[in-house]
Amino acid sequence: QVPLVESGGGLVQAGDSLRLSCAASGRTFSSYVMGWFRQAPGKEREFVAAISRIGSSTYYADSVKGRFTVSRDNAKNTLYLQMNSLKPEDTAVYYCAVGSQRGYSVSYYSEPHKYNYWGQGTQVTVSS
Protein backbone atom coordinates (compact mmCIF):
# COMPACT_ATOMS: atom_id res chain seq x y z
CA GLN A 1 0.00 0.00 0.00
CA VAL A 2 1.17 3.54 -0.76
CA PRO A 3 -0.47 6.18 1.45
CA LEU A 4 -0.95 9.45 -0.44
CA VAL A 5 -1.72 12.87 1.02
CA GLU A 6 -2.66 15.80 -1.22
CA SER A 7 -2.28 19.44 -0.20
CA GLY A 8 -2.26 22.91 -1.71
CA GLY A 9 -5.87 23.34 -2.68
CA GLY A 10 -7.85 26.46 -1.93
CA LEU A 11 -10.13 29.21 -3.16
CA VAL A 12 -8.70 31.39 -5.92
CA GLN A 13 -9.94 33.72 -8.61
CA ALA A 14 -10.00 33.01 -12.32
CA GLY A 15 -6.55 33.55 -13.80
CA ASP A 16 -4.73 32.72 -10.58
CA SER A 17 -2.31 29.86 -9.98
CA LEU A 18 -2.09 27.04 -7.47
CA ARG A 19 0.44 24.30 -6.85
CA LEU A 20 -0.83 20.98 -5.55
CA SER A 21 1.43 18.50 -3.81
CA CYS A 22 1.00 14.80 -3.19
CA ALA A 23 3.23 13.23 -0.55
CA ALA A 24 3.70 9.48 -0.75
CA SER A 25 4.97 7.07 1.85
CA GLY A 26 7.04 4.00 1.17
CA ARG A 27 10.05 3.17 -0.89
CA THR A 28 8.26 2.30 -4.13
CA PHE A 29 7.19 5.80 -5.19
CA SER A 30 9.68 5.99 -8.03
CA SER A 31 8.60 2.60 -9.40
CA TYR A 32 5.24 3.73 -10.71
CA VAL A 33 3.57 6.17 -13.01
CA MET A 34 1.68 8.80 -11.02
CA GLY A 35 -1.43 10.63 -12.03
CA TRP A 36 -3.75 13.49 -11.13
CA PHE A 37 -7.51 13.28 -11.46
CA ARG A 38 -10.33 15.61 -10.49
CA GLN A 39 -13.98 15.26 -9.70
CA ALA A 40 -16.54 18.03 -9.75
CA PRO A 41 -19.91 17.69 -7.98
CA GLY A 42 -22.24 15.45 -9.93
CA LYS A 43 -19.58 14.46 -12.42
CA GLU A 44 -17.37 11.45 -12.94
CA ARG A 45 -13.74 11.43 -11.96
CA GLU A 46 -11.75 13.00 -14.78
CA PHE A 47 -8.16 12.48 -15.85
CA VAL A 48 -5.92 15.53 -15.57
CA ALA A 49 -2.28 14.47 -16.02
CA ALA A 50 0.15 11.60 -15.68
CA ILE A 51 3.92 11.40 -15.34
CA SER A 52 6.36 8.59 -15.94
CA ARG A 53 8.43 7.00 -13.19
CA ILE A 54 11.44 9.27 -13.61
CA GLY A 55 9.49 12.27 -14.86
CA SER A 56 10.79 12.19 -18.40
CA SER A 57 7.35 11.80 -19.98
CA THR A 58 4.07 13.52 -19.23
CA TYR A 59 0.55 13.33 -20.60
CA TYR A 60 -2.31 15.80 -20.16
CA ALA A 61 -6.01 16.07 -20.72
CA ASP A 62 -6.81 18.48 -23.52
CA SER A 63 -8.72 20.69 -21.09
CA VAL A 64 -5.57 21.49 -19.09
CA LYS A 65 -2.84 21.23 -21.70
CA GLY A 66 -0.71 24.35 -21.75
CA ARG A 67 -1.99 25.53 -18.35
CA PHE A 68 -1.08 22.69 -15.98
CA THR A 69 2.30 21.06 -15.43
CA VAL A 70 2.84 17.78 -13.63
CA SER A 71 6.21 17.00 -12.05
CA ARG A 72 7.70 14.74 -9.42
CA ASP A 73 10.61 14.67 -7.02
CA ASN A 74 11.43 11.04 -6.34
CA ALA A 75 13.99 11.96 -3.70
CA LYS A 76 11.17 13.57 -1.72
CA ASN A 77 8.48 11.05 -2.70
CA THR A 78 6.35 13.96 -3.87
CA LEU A 79 4.18 14.60 -6.91
CA TYR A 80 3.21 18.11 -7.98
CA LEU A 81 0.63 19.79 -10.15
CA GLN A 82 1.29 23.40 -11.09
CA MET A 83 -1.96 24.97 -12.23
CA ASN A 84 -1.86 28.31 -14.02
CA SER A 85 -4.56 30.42 -15.65
CA LEU A 86 -7.20 28.71 -13.59
CA LYS A 87 -10.78 28.78 -14.81
CA PRO A 88 -14.06 28.29 -12.92
CA GLU A 89 -14.48 24.96 -14.73
CA ASP A 90 -11.32 23.72 -13.00
CA THR A 91 -13.24 23.70 -9.73
CA ALA A 92 -13.15 20.15 -8.34
CA VAL A 93 -11.61 17.87 -5.78
CA TYR A 94 -8.18 16.89 -7.05
CA TYR A 95 -6.75 13.44 -6.38
CA CYS A 96 -3.35 11.92 -6.91
CA ALA A 97 -3.00 8.23 -7.64
CA VAL A 98 -0.46 5.48 -8.21
CA GLY A 99 -0.50 3.54 -11.45
CA SER A 100 -1.37 -0.12 -11.00
CA GLN A 101 0.78 -1.58 -13.74
CA ARG A 102 4.22 -0.99 -15.15
CA GLY A 103 5.64 -1.14 -18.61
CA TYR A 104 3.18 1.07 -20.50
CA SER A 105 3.60 4.49 -22.02
CA VAL A 106 2.36 7.33 -19.86
CA SER A 107 -0.62 7.95 -22.16
CA TYR A 108 -1.99 4.54 -21.14
CA TYR A 109 -2.75 5.87 -17.66
CA SER A 110 -5.67 8.12 -18.50
CA GLU A 111 -8.45 6.14 -16.82
CA PRO A 112 -9.18 5.74 -13.11
CA HIS A 113 -9.23 1.92 -13.20
CA LYS A 114 -5.55 1.92 -14.17
CA TYR A 115 -4.64 3.23 -10.72
CA ASN A 116 -4.82 1.29 -7.48
CA TYR A 117 -3.99 3.77 -4.70
CA TRP A 118 -5.63 7.13 -4.21
CA GLY A 119 -5.28 10.06 -1.89
CA GLN A 120 -8.18 11.69 -0.04
CA GLY A 121 -8.26 14.68 -2.35
CA THR A 122 -7.84 18.43 -2.01
CA GLN A 123 -10.51 20.97 -2.96
CA VAL A 124 -9.79 23.57 -5.61
CA THR A 125 -12.37 26.29 -6.09
CA VAL A 126 -11.99 28.92 -8.78
CA SER A 127 -14.31 31.90 -8.63
CA SER A 128 -15.18 33.99 -11.69
Keywords:
single chain, four-stranded antiparallel beta sheet
Annotate the secondary structure layout.
Elements: E1 4-7, E2 10-13, E3 18-24, E4 34-39, E5 46-51, E6 58-60, E7 68-73, E8 78-83, E9 92-99, E10 115-118, E11 122-127
Parallel strand pairs: 2-11
Antiparallel strand pairs: 1-3, 3-8, 4-5, 4-9, 5-6, 7-8, 9-10, 9-11
What features would you describe in this structure?
The chain has strands at residues 4-7, 10-13, 18-24, 34-39, 46-51, 58-60, 68-73, 78-83, 92-99, 115-118, 122-127. By secondary structure, the protein is mostly beta strands. The strands form two sheets. Strands 2, 4, 5, 6, 9, 10 and 11 form a seven-stranded mixed beta sheet that branches. A four-stranded antiparallel beta sheet has the order 1-3-8-7, with no helix packed on it. β5 (46-51) and β6 (58-60) form a beta hairpin. The radius of gyration is 13 Å and the shape is globular. The N and C termini lie far apart (39 Å).
Concise summary:
The protein is built from no helices and 11 strands. By secondary structure, it is mainly beta. The mean pLDDT is 95.
Report the structural category. mainly beta
Give the low-confidence spans.
Answer: none
Question: From N to C, what is the helix and strand string?
Answer: EEEEEEEEEEE
Question: Biggest β-sheet: count, sense, barrel?
Answer: 7 strands, mixed
**Residues in helices, as a percent range:** under 10%
Mean pLDDT figure: 95
Q: From the alpha-carbon coordinates, what is the Rg to the nearest angstrom?
A: 13 Å
How many beta-strand segments? Answer: 11
Query: Strand fraction band?
Result: over 45%
Global shape: globular
Cα(first) to Cα(last) distance is: 39 Å
Q: Tell me the quaternary state.
A: single chain
Q: List the total number of helices.
A: 0
